[in-house]
Design goal:
Keywords: Cell membrane, Membrane, Transmembrane, Transmembrane helix, Transport
Distance between the termini: 46 Å
Oligomer: single chain
Order of helices and strands: HHHHHHHHHHHHHHH
Structural class: mainly alpha
InterPro entries: MetI-like (IPR000515), MetI-like_sf (IPR035906)
Pfam family, one: BPD_transp_1
Protein name: ABC-type glycerol-3-phosphate transport system permease component
Largest sheet: none
Strand content: under 5%
Membrane topology: Multi-pass membrane protein
């Protein structure tokens, strides 16, 4: 009887923990909610005092002004979106392929100096990207890739984080599974595409999420490697909007542009979150 009473005891510690995490999560979402609300606010609500968190009369005028502002230039706003989508997609797609192809021999083949190569990859993670910006620009300029999409893609394809993540994940895959495929007559290319790549999905999704967010939000490549306006990216266009127009445009139009910019990252996160959690769950497992 005493045990049954204890079994029905309320777990106040667990309730407090869930309430605390819920409140903390809502606080983290507050800036996103405020940005969405501001994007739909009319001009009359943008400068109210005291300011209102939620919009009372939602409108699409800020999105219209965004198109009108960018329409006065020689480059439409849709061009900036296309440039960012193209560059980010290529960085993610080619980066996944290169990282997976580099991680496979490092994790599953007795290649010479693989320990030293892996240590160099770990060492590269420790360096700030700013360290190699000048050599990268000189190399891109010397080979004549300035004002091309390749100038914004090639420097970011060799991703040490992706190679490290996939190498560590591949080390958890039993060697017997690969040997069974080879015994059945599969070549190394077939083992890579049919066995390795499907099992790498959690690591690929994790790297794709981080890589896309980094590439999508980075204005540096378009700022340094391009001079033509039609090659500029969306983050650089948003910086132009925030600094080159009036106060009203900087508030309402910037919020609308920021909302359009954050939508793809939310979509990528929603698509990859389940695989990302699987990567975290398997990170501590051993063969």
């Amino acid at each position: 009887m005493t045990g049954a009473v204890k079994g029905r005891r309320i777990d106040w510690g667990g309730i407090f923990l869930y309430l605390f995490l819920t409140l903390f999560g809502l606080l983290m979402l507050a800036p996103l909610v405020y940005m969405i609300s501001t994007a739909f606010k009319p001009t009359s609500e943008l400068f109210l005092f005291p300011p209102r968190f939620f919009v009372n009369n939602p409108t699409l005028v800020n999105f219209r002004d965004l198109l009108l502002i960018t329409g006065t230039t020689s480059v439409p706003f849709s061009r900036f979106i296309f440039n960012s989508l193209l560059v980010s997609s290529c960085i993610v797609g080619f980066g996944i392929l290169i990282s997976a192809m580099a991680a496979y021999p490092l994790a599953k083949h007795n290649m010479p100096f693989r320990g030293a190569i892996f240590n160099m990859i770990v060492l590269a993670i420790m360096f700030s990207p700013m360290v190699v910006q000048i050599p990268q620009y000189l190399l891109i300029s010397k080979i004549g890739l300035v004002n091309t999409y390749w100038a914004m893609i090639l420097p970011y394809l060799a991703a040490p984080v992706g190679m490290f993540l996939m190498t560590q994940f591949l080390r958890q895959i039993p060697d017997a599974l690969l040997e069974a495929a080879r015994i059945d007559g599969a070549s190394e290319w077939k083992v890579f595409w049919v066995v390795i790549m499907p099992m790498l999905k959690p690591a690929i999704s994790t790297f794709a999420l981080f890589s896309f967010i980094s590439a999508w939000n980075d204005p540096y490549p378009a700022m340094v490697y391009t001079t033509d306006q039609d090659m500029k990216s969306l983050p650089l266009a948003i910086q132009t909007i925030s600094g080159g127009y009036g106060v009203v445009a900087r508030v309402g139009t910037l919020a609308a542009a920021s909302l359009l910019m954050i939508i793809p990252t939310i979509i990528v996160f929603v698509v990859t979150q389940r695989m990302v959690l699987q990567t975290m769950a398997h990170s501590g497992l051993k063969e």
